[in-house]
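Appendix B, Record 12. Input sequence as logged:
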Amino acid sequence: MPVEFRADLHIHTCLSPCSELSMTPARIVGRAASLGINILAVCDHNTVEHVEVTANIAKKKGISVIAGLEINSSEEVHILGLFENMADALRMQAIVYENLPGENDEDAFGMQVLVNETEEVLGFNKRLLIGATDLSVNRIVELIHGFNGLAIASHIDREGFGIIGQLGFIPEGLEFDALEISYRTSREKAHEMFRLYSHIPWITSSDAHSLEDIGRSTTWFLMEHSTFGELRMAMKGIGNRKILF
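Logged structural output:
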């Protein structure tokens, strides 16, 4: 029988240059556990390098971690890619890295810190993770689906980096699995603003860049288990599974 799971599907770690350095995997998991969150998706900018360490920590707390990343398209539209396993996530990352020009300037954008389970610094990612890739919105969605992932348009209610703010609309035929509404917009306001897109499933997430941000907006899912496969079925409304947005 399906039960309710609370999910925050858009979390940045200290690997994202715009995130606070306190956003280590260990502290993120601790904060999520204190809030009763069952599912997290680690979605750093253009990278999945902190997913595995977060998942290892979360497993001990009974929290499921979905492999993800937030990809910046050539049009400067942010898209979340969620994946069933690390192998598919790493394949997506490899293509993103191949199409991500530039090197990070820590003074301008911030540090991109890689840490382990005990918060020891392992190194710094030197790529320009905050930058735009050479991949179009259409190509990113196509690639995510090619790796059996879920493509979600990030914070569509934001002017900056949201698909509607950047393009003015969601192109017909662009098959997003869900649209993300940020914590800034209530459900009622979202229905007023985006009723043209009510046929696409909606979620809401924290887009956390600090520990205090985690859980400020979450989505409840009615599912059998806290797995990627169940999330997919909930987004498609299969077998009594659904999004409780």
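The first helix runs from residue 25 to 34.
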